[in-house]
# Entry
Amino acid sequence: MKILSPLIIFLLIGCGYKPTTYYTTPVLGDKIATEVEIDIKNPTDSIYLSDALNESIVNIFNSKIDNNSLSKIKLKVLSISFEILDYDKNGYPILYRAKTDVKGYITDKRGVINIYRGVGSYDFSITANSILDDETKHSAIKEAFIQALQIIEFKIANKGMENDNKSN
# Structure
């Protein structure tokens, strides 16, 4: 496997692979302000979205959170739902999917606002005859939020790629 890793890296570099941060950084910069609109019907999950956003700024966008930055990501929860995917032999649900729909108002470093939507899902199982508890639900919702934020990141990177192509 050690031989394979450098080979994969060489192939990715050789074919012109660039990480999404290569394209998002020129659009947003390396410091981003964050805001999450609190959902009055479900304020707890808005807090999980805020946590997911802050993790994404650091881990996905490779940036720092700075509430004085011109670049800003403001998020609003459009919907959260759960669906049962599978049952055990006794008819009890054992596999679920958490689905989230998030709208992002993205202000780039020039002050231009773009609106993107991200839909995320996360599949998880519980043991037979157990109850789906709040901690498990919130954890699944947070994972679905992270996936929705990755979709928004890809859309921002696409905007950065378009700008990169125009400048070449």
